[in-house]
What does this fold into?
Amino acid sequence: MTQDEARKVFLEELLKVAPDLESDEIGADDHIQDDLELDSMDVLNLVAALHARLGVDIPEQEYVEIATPALAAAYLSRRLAA
It folds into this structure.
């Protein structure tokens, strides 16, 4: 999976967890908690949704790797390539 594909999947799942967000207003470096205001339960739901869709386990200590869409795209594409 390319980083562009991974970013698209991440944003799709993010918008399901936080439907009040607008995809065109989410920047590549927007932090999902600090900038987009997801709470810890939203983050857990996002991780679960990514796992269900992609089959990728994201350990809690690696949540920082999906803290922004750009980081998430790189992380997910790297994990899916392994």
In short: The radius of gyration is 11 Å. The domain at 3-19+28-81 is CATH 1.10.1200.10 (Non-ribosomal Peptide Synthetase Peptidyl Carrier Protein; Chain A). The helical segments are 3-17, 40-54, 69-81.
